[in-house]
Amino acid sequence: xxxxxxxxxxxxxxxxxxxxxxxxxxxxxxxxxxxxxxxxxxxxxxxxxxxxxxxxxxxxxxxxxxxxxxxxxxxxxxxxxxxxxxxxxxxxxxxxxxxxxxxxxxxxxxxxxxxxxxxxxxxxxxxxxxxxxxxxxxxxxxxxxxxxxxxxxxxxxxxxxxxxxxxxxxxxxxxxxxxxxxxxxxxxxxxxxxxxxxxxxxxxxxxxxxxxxxxxxxxxxxxxxxxxxxxxxxxxxxxxxxxxxxxxxxxxxxxxxxxxxxxxxxxxxxxxxxxxxxxxxxxxxxxxxxxxxxxxxxxxxxxxxxxxxxxxxxxxxxxxxxxxxxxxxxxxxxxxxxxxxxxxxxxxxxxxxxxxxxxxxxxxxx
Length: 366
What we know:
Blueprint: H1 2-32, E1 44-47, E2 51-55, E3 59-61, E4 64-67, E5 74-78, E6 81-82, E7 84-85, E8 89-91, E9 96-98, E10 104-112, E11 119-127, E12 131-133, E13 136-140, E14 144-146, E15 148-150, E16 159-163, E17 166-167, E18 169-170, E19 174-176, E20 181-183, E21 189-197, E22 203-217, E23 221-223, E24 228-230, E25 232-236, E26 243-247, E27 250-251, E28 253-254, E29 258-260, E30 265-267, E31 273-281, E32 288-295, E33 350-352, E34 363-365
Parallel strand pairs: 2-11, 13-22, 23-32
Antiparallel strand pairs: 1-4, 3-9, 5-6, 5-10, 7-8, 8-9, 10-11, 12-15, 14-20, 16-17, 16-21, 18-19, 19-20, 21-22, 22-25, 24-30, 26-27, 26-31, 28-29, 29-30, 31-32, 33-34
């Protein structure tokens, strides 16, 4: 009995130590045989086009090819805005882009649904179906402006031109030729030059024209050497009425041709001669008008005898226009002749600084 109990105790102790060992070995074996961690994805995206031009309001289909994953879905955005917006253009889940109504450049992006770090971009240039340049102009009455119409993808599009809704315009609003040359009317005002394209897609575009008038006074004046003459300019039809002055093409003039300040006050040189005063608008280079003047010694004595002076030679040494180089047989000559009985003498007689009454000039020509 004692032997049996002792043997049982030994077997029980052995079994107690063996079971935990077997259990640990079984757990260790189960862990080493598990599923390995997933491999990192190598996703790439490619769009069907990376640069495209789209007309305002038109649509463009984009598509994306996704590789490196079984999930080929993409999310679309415009200028980093999911789905875009009315201002930059909208794009739906299938990649159909609808351009906005305003021209501009935008970026369409496709982002992988499986890996948001993987993207592909396309640049979209949104252009109008028809554009006119310049978009605005300021013209002086009677001057011209060339307008140009551009249709994307067309070299010589057939364009119809109108002014204020009148095909080709008319004399009151200005006329425009078939190639876009606009001629301003004779009066100031605001007008709209429009171009129309009837192709596909059709479109219209317009430009605003401000027609102004410019005049200078007085004209054809005589100024004594060293004397002054005040000129004035009148600008109508534009807000900027500033002008610049020049003499014989020289801004502000000089001592040889005479000077003119910013107010239009001209100071004649000491030398006799003819000169041209030009006034130009600051707002538009098309606005220039001119006035002629003659620097002449007006203080000569009275003409009281035949052929100007006592010597009867008929010489007037202060003449600036009818000079020998200008008076020749090609420009002057006898027009006709008549037979008369006796002699005829023709000579104007001039008495300066003689006032008869306030309504008469200072000097008389008889």
